[in-house]
Amino acid sequence: MKIVILLVSFLLEGIISNFVPINGFLAPLFTLVALIMICPLFSESTDYYKYAFFTGLAYDLFYTDTIIFHAIIFCFMAFIIMRLNIVLSDNFINALITVSVCILMYRVLTYGLLVFINNMSFEVLTLINSILKSLILNLIYGMILFVVIRKLKRKGKYHY
Q1: What's this model's pTM, rounded to 2 decimal places?
Q2: At 90, is the secondary structure helix, strand, or coil?
Q3: Contact at 8 Å (CB) between 18 and 54?
Q4: pLDDT per position in the chain (160 positions), as tens?
Q5: Rounded CA separation 145/123 (Å)
């Protein structure tokens, strides 16, 4: 089930990004949101890091022209997600808080690395705009994914 959720989110992100312009109002990060939502389903943290690494590697290969960049970032984000799940309980509001914090950190981290390697110039408004665009759509997707995972767990179709 974890693979299905990641795969659907990964493909949905590609489909949505074809219809939404790059500088548009919404910026999908469904793969990262899926990683956040499936974290409580793992009993072993090493398995979760493997999922994060290979998802980031696939993200690099299919959506960006970088190699290992997102694989490392997704592993770092998995570490942050694991720490947040230890501190916060597994409920709807805390899941949305985790999504918000992780999207904020992901955008700041990737933007900072792109500025560091001189691929972009630093502008605070561009960073804030990027974060706000990411939060709107991804919080909605996080809500939907949280409800779907909860319903699957309650019906007993998913045992972890």
Answers
A1: 0.88
A2: coil
A3: no
A4: 889 999 999 999 889 888 876 555 678 899 999 999 999 888 888 999 999 999 999 999 988 878 898 999 999 999 999 999 999 888 899 999 999 999 999 989 988 888 888 776 778 887 888 888 889 889 999 999 999 998 888 776 555 4
A5: 33
Flag whether 158 is in a domain: no
- At 140, list the tokens: 């909605």
Contact, 99 vs 36, CB < 8 A? yes
Q: Nearest CA to 106 among 78, 137, 66, 139? A: 78
Token digits of residue 102: 């992780």
Quickly tell me which residue has 């947040």 as its tokens. 84
Residue 160 lies in a domain: no
- Give dist(CA 104, CA 154) in Å, integer: 31
Other Cβ atoms less than 10 A from the Cβ of 147: the count is 11
Q: Are 145 and 33 in contact (CB under 8 A)?
A: yes
Question: Rg for the chain (alpha carbons), in Å?
Answer: 15
- Phi, psi (deg, nearest 5) at residue 158: -125, 115
Domain count, the chain: 1
Segments forming the whole domain that contains residue 115: 2-19+26-153
